[in-house]
Amino acid sequence: MNTPSPKQNPTPRAANARTVRRLLIVVVGMFGFGFALVPLYEVFCDITGFNGRTKNEQAVVNQRSIDKSRTINVQFITRINQGMPWEFRPEVRSVRVHPGETKVVQFYAKNLTDQDMVAQAVPSVAPGQAGLYLNKTECFCFNQQPLAAGSETLMPMQFYLDPDIPKHIHTLTLSYTMYDMTAHTHPDVLASIKAEPTAE
Amino acid sequence: MSTAVGEMTNHDHHHHAPSGFTRWLFTTNHKEIGSLYLWFSFIMFLVGGSMAMVIRAELFEPGLQLVDPHFFNQMTTVHGLVMVFGAVMPAFVGLANWMIPLMIGAPDMALPRMNNWSFWILPFAFMILLGSLFMDGGGPAFGWTFYAPLSTTYSTDSTALFVFSVHIMGISSIMGAINVIVTVMNMRAPGMTYMKMPMFVWTWFVTAFLLIAVMPVLACAATMVLTDKYFGTSFFDAAGGGDPVLFQHIFWFFGHPEVYIMILPSFGIVSAIIPAFSRKKLFGYSSMVYATGAIAGLSFLVWAHHMFTTGMPVGAEIFFMYATMLISVPTGVKVFNWVATMWRGSISFETPMLFAMAFVVLFTIGGFSGLMLAITPADFQYHDSYFVVAHFHYVLVSGAVFSIMAAAYYWLPKWTGHMYDEKLGRLHFWCSLISVNVLFFPMHFVGLAGMPRRIPDYALQFADINQIVSYGAFAFGLSQLIFLWVLIKCVRGGEKAPDKPWEGAEGLEWTVPSPAPLHTFETPPEVK
C-alpha cells in the first residue's frame, strides 16, 4: 500500500503465484489428511488389533480342535463411564479355558435410576495382541442395551480363543466399559423400552 | 520503540509513508515486519515468563499457598501456548523476515502484503487467548497439548476461544511459511544456488515445509475438539464410537515436527555465528544441509514416542524407540560439525558467540535426556515427571531461546546501526547461563525421584530442590530484564556500527550499510 514494491518483470510474479498455488494445495491436502487420519486409524486398529480392539462382530462357531495342552486365564473387568448410575459386573471374575474351547460368561446389569436408559458396552483387550484371537460368537456388546427404570438383566457373552493365539500369552483381560447412550437415542426407541418385558 | 525509527530519518525520501501507528499497521517492508515480529515475540516472552514465575512461586513450598489448582493449571497451559506460539515461533519468523531477503540478495519477501497479514492477525490471536483467562471458569486449563477428553468433556467454555486462537496462530504460521518458501525458491540473487545459501536460509526453508505440512494437522485436531465439545461429534468420545487415544496420535503427528520447527532455525543461527567468531568456514556445510533434511524427514516417523504409556503394542514401541534414536545421528553430525568448526579456530568470545557456545553444550544435554526418554522401558518411569520438563526446557530455553538471543546480539548492529553494550550483553549471558542451569538442572533429579509435572503441590521430600529451582527461575526471569535494557539502549544509541561489525562474519547481509536501509538489493547482487 505504501511501499512502492520493487517491481521486476512480470515473470517472477507469475512464478510466485504458481509456487503459492502449489503450496496451498499441500496445505489443503494436509488439512484433509488430518481428518483422513480418523478413518485410517479405525481401519488400522481393526486390522492389527492395536489399541486393544477386539473383533467386534459375530464370529463363526469354532470348527477347529481344542488345544488341551494350553490353558489361558481370561479375566473380566467392568467399568461404568463417568458416574453412570448403573450397576454392571461379571458373574465370574475369570475363567480358565483351552484355546478353541467355547465358554459362556454372564454379565449382570442393573439400572439404578427411575428412568429408562440405553447403554452400550465397549470392549477392550489387554495385551493388545490378544484382541485378534478373541472370537465372540455371541455378545451383548454387539447391540445397545435398553434397560427400563430400576430393572436388572443378565447379559451373555459366548467366546472362544483362536488356537493360533501366540504362545507367550497366558493371561488376557477383557474389559467392558458401559456408556450411557440415552441422550443419543431416538425418543421413539426410548418409549418402546417399557413395552419390553424386563429380563428374568 | 522500534529499530527502524533511526532508518527512517535516512531514508524517508524513498516513500511517503504514513507516520505513527498506521505506518506499522500498513507496512509491507520485510525489515519493519521483522521488527514487529521480534518485538511481539519479546513481549510474549515476558508474558509467558511471568506465568512461569507464578508457577515457580506456587511450587516454592509444598502445599497450596498462592493460587488455586485450577488457576495453576491455566498458568501451565497458557505459559506453554504463549511460549511456543507467541515467543519462539514468531521470533524465528521475525528473524526470517529480517535476514532471509538480506542473505539471498532479494529486495523483499516475495509476498509482502501477505506478510503484513500474517503478522497482524497474531496480536488478535493472543488477545483472544489471554482474554479467555478472565472469563467465568477461567481460560484453558488442559495443558498446551489439549488432550481429549480434558479439552472436550471436562473443559470450560473458554475452549471455543482457545480453538479459535489456535486457528489464527496456525493461519499466521502457514502464511509466514509460504512466504519463506516462495522467497527462497524464486527470489535468490543470480548465482545464489541452493548449495550456496547460508545455513540459516536452509534451515528455515526446511522448517517452512514442516510448517505447511503440520500446522493444518493441528488445525484438524483443534477443529475436532471444537465439534466434539459443541456440535455433538464423537471423534474422541468412546461412548459415540470415537477414541481419545486418536487425539494423541493426531496431536503428536503435528507435535513432533513442531519441536523441530522450533529448533531447526536455531541450528541455522548457530551455524552462522560459530564460524564468524571462530574465523573459520563452517565445517561440513553440505553434511549440515543433508542432516537438516534428515531430521525433518524423520520427524514424521517418531510421534508415538510421546505416547509410550498409552498401551501400544510392543512392536510399535520398539519401532518408535529406534526411529527416535535414529534422529540423534543427524543431530550428532551437526554438533560435531560445530565443534569441528571451533577446533583450532581463533575464537573470540563476544556475546553472540557465548550464547551460541552455551547453545551447543546445553542443547546437547537436552538431546541426551531426550535419548533417555526415547528408551521405552525407561520412559514408563520418566513419563509425565519433571524429568520431561527438564528435558524440553533444556532444548527450548537453553536451546531455541538462547539461539534467538545469540541471533539478536549478532544482528543487532545491522538492525539498529549501533553496537550493543558488550559489558551488559556479557552480564546478561552469564546471569542467564547460571540461572538457567540452577532452574532446569535439578528438575532432572526431582523428576527421577518421581515428582509429577503439572501439579501445584508435591510431596515434602521434593521441597529443597523445588526451592532451588524456584530461585533459579526468579533469577532467570530477572536476567531477561537486562536483555530488555540492552535492546532499548542499543535501539536508542550507542557506538556506530560498521557495515560488518564482526571480523569473521560472512554473508550478503554484511555488504549493506548498518543500519540496513529500508530498501536493499533493489538491483540484485552478483554472487560468485
Keywords summarizing the entry:
heterodimer, A: 200 residues, 4-stranded antiparallel β-sheet, disordered N terminus, B: 528 residues, mainly alpha, Cytochrome C Oxidase, Chain A, 67% helix, globular
Describe the structure.
The complex is a heterodimer of chains A (200) and B (528). In chain A, 22% of the residues lie in helices and 33% in strands. Chain A has 200 residues and is of the alpha+beta class. Chain A has 2 domains: 12-48; 72-191, Sandwich (Ctag/Cox11 (Pfam 04442)), CATH 2.60.370. Chain A has a 5-stranded mixed β-sheet, with no helix packed on it. The longest helix of chain A is centred in the N-terminal third of the chain and has 39 residues, at 10-48. Chain B is mainly alpha-helical. Chain B has a single domain (5-511), classed as Cytochrome C Oxidase, Chain A, CATH 1.20.210. Helices cover 67% and strands 0% of the residues of chain B. Chain B is built from 17 helices and no strands. Chain B has helices spanning 5-11, 20-26, 30-58, 69-104, 112-120, 122-131, 159-186, 199-230, 244-261, 264-278, 285-298, 314-342, 351-374, 376-382, 386-416, 422-448, 463-492. The longest helix of chain B is centred in the first third of the chain and has 36 residues, at 69-104. Chain B starts with a helix and ends in a 36-residue tail after the last helix. The model of chain B is unreliable at 1-13 (pLDDT under 50).
Give the gist of this structure.
With 200 residues, chain A is of the alpha+beta class. Helix content of chain A is 22%, strand content 33%.
